[in-house]
Amino acid sequence: MAQYEEITIDQGSDVAIQIYLVNDDGSAKNLNSHTVSAKMKKTYSSTDSDTTVFTAGVQDPYTAGIISLALTNIQTEALRKGRHVFDVELSHTDSDGATIIERVLEGRVHVTPSVTR
C-alpha cells in the first residue's frame, strides 16, 4: 500500500523532491532495473490534457533507494492554484518477464498562487 503525503508547491517555482524507499526491515530498497513515473492532476477524473508529468528517476547508487521528482518553474506556473492529487509508481520486470507496478506514494498537492510573475 502506498504511503500518503501532502505537499505544497509554490506556483512559478522549480520543485525538487526526494523519496527514500526502505524495505520492511528498514534497509534501503534496491532499485536496480526499476523505472519511476509520477503525475499530478487537479482531480482524479481530470483529462490527460490537465495532467502534469514529473521528471522522475532513480538516483545513483540504485542500492540507496532514492527516487527524484522534479518540476520546472514553467510547469508550476501553468498549474491552477488550489488542491491537486498525485501519485508515484515504481515498475520493474520480474524473473518471469511480468511487469510489476507498485504505487509507492500518493496524496494531495496544494499549489499556492504567485504574486510576482
Walk me through the structure.
The structure is a single chain. The chain has 117 residues and is mainly beta. The protein has a single domain, classed as Immunoglobulins (Immunoglobulin-like), CATH 2.60.40.10. The protein is built from one helix and eight strands. The strands form two sheets. Strands 1-8-7-3-4 form a five-stranded mixed beta sheet, with no helix packed on it. A three-stranded antiparallel beta sheet has the order 2-6-5.
Defining key terms:
117 residues; mainly beta; Immunoglobulin-like; 8 strands; 4% helix
Q: What is shown here, in short?
A:
This protein has 117 residues and is mostly beta strands.
Strand content: over 45%
If strands are numbered along the chain, what order do they take across the biggest sheet? 1-8-7-3-4
Mind telling me the CATH class? Answer: Mainly Beta
Query: Which fold name is given in CATH as the topology?
Result: Immunoglobulin-like
Number of strands: 8
Unreliable residue stretches: none
Mean pLDDT: 94
Could you give me the name of the CATH homologous superfamily? Immunoglobulins
Q: What's the N-to-C terminus distance?
A: 39 Å
Number of helices: 1
